[in-house]
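Action item from last meeting closed. Structure (360 res):
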């Protein structure tokens, strides 16, 4: 690697902070970490409305190893589970203002960072089936949940605390006025992580590598995953991307982009590299060389979002450590056919009973 003083200054602070939560020790309780990691993307948005309690319920019912989800931060500082920076009309509907004559109403179209939790809780985000997912179950009246509410529901369905979580910070590195800052995301998310029985079962992922560096500085026990795709590798005309914390892949050793990204992920002390599986034209963005170099560096590889078993076959040949998919039910059946050890499904009646309890 052609190391520079700039890179050294960027990363040196990661190692100078002791864990401020010494009471959170690694649990000896067995978890799904022993299984091939079938991750339900946004719970499993091909099956049920994304990033909602019903979506996570069906992810558990279908045997997802890991529930993947996204976090935003509201104007009043609450960590909510939602993918988009704003409330999109093709996913949510207004119902009523949070209080009479609220000047912010209607809320659809507004940024989460500019809304309070009370305003967000009025939205119906379970009534609209997505065009790209015609088999998606809808659940009219479903609200956006806080991260704490998701943990509470899953603990009801999973009293042994075996399920894993992959939680993304939805921060906008290109348009910082659309989301809250890195420090807000990391500190507020970690506060919820630290008081959860699932604290040691969480992977923290982001396209904005500044948040990965900051989370490692705050708590070295949290596993981190460096997300990357073709749009975040470089800026326009191969300029330095705002997403990779000032790093450039071509500053690292490797004859291919994949190998360079593996080296860059190691440089920020990421535990996992989570690349886009394919380019939009179908060519592979994740490569055999990327996986091999990552493994040589002690980094796992878990590509996204894989909804094609031909792609899954190739990734398995390259020995990836898990796959993020919109269809965890299908990928789990495929994994069993490949003689991979897969997580058990959760009892349907128990999960649905917990869902009713936590949505009524």
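Sequence:
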């Amino acid at each position: 690697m052609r190391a520079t003083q700039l890179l050294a200054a960027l990363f040196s602070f990661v190692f100078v902070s002791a864990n401020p939560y010494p009471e959170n020790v690694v649990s000896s309780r067995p978890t799904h970490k022993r299984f091939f990691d079938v991750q339900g993307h946004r719970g499993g948005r091909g099956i049920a409305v994304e990033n909602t309690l019903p979506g996570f319920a069906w992810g558990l019912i279908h045997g997802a190893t890991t529930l993947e989800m996204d976090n935003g931060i509201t104007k009043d500082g609450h960590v909510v589970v939602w993918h988009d920076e704003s409330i999109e009309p093709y996913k949510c509907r207004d119902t009523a203002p949070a209080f009479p004559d609220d000047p912010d109403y209607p809320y659809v179209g507004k940024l989460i960072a500019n809304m309070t939790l009370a305003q967000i809780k009025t939205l119906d985000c379970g009534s609209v089936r997505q065009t790209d997912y015609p088999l998606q179950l809808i659940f009219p009246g479903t609200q956006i949940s806080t991260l704490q509410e998701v943990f509470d529901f899953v603990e009801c369905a999973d009293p042994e605390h075996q399920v894993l979580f992959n939680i993304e910070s939805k921060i906008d590195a290109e348009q910082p006025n659309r989301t809250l800052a890195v420090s807000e995301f990391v500190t507020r998310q970690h506060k919820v992580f630290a008081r959860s029985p699932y604290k040691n079962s969480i992977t923290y992922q982001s396209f904005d590598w500044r948040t990965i560096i900051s989370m490692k500085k705050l708590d070295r026990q949290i596993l981190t995953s460096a997300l990357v795709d073709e749009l975040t590798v470089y800026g326009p005309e191969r300029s330095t991307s705002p997403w990779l914390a000032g790093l450039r892949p071509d500053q690292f050793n490797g004859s291919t982009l994949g190998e360079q990204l593996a080296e860059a992920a190691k440089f920020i002390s990421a535990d996992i590299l989570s690349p886009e599986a394919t380019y939009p034209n179908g060519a592979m963005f994740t490569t055999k060389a990327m996986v091999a170099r990552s493994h040589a560096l002690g980094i796992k590889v878990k590509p996204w979002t894989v909804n094609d078993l031909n792609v899954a076959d190739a990734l398995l040949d390259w020995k990836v450590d898990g796959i993020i998919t919109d269809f965890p039910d299908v990928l789990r059946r495929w994994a069993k056919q490949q003689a991979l050890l897969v997580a058990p499904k959760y009892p349907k009646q128990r999960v649905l009973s917990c869902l009713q309890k936590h949505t009524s």
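Note appended to the action item: Strands lie at 37-40, 66-73, 79-81, 164-169, 202-206, 223-228, 272-275, 300-301, 322-325.
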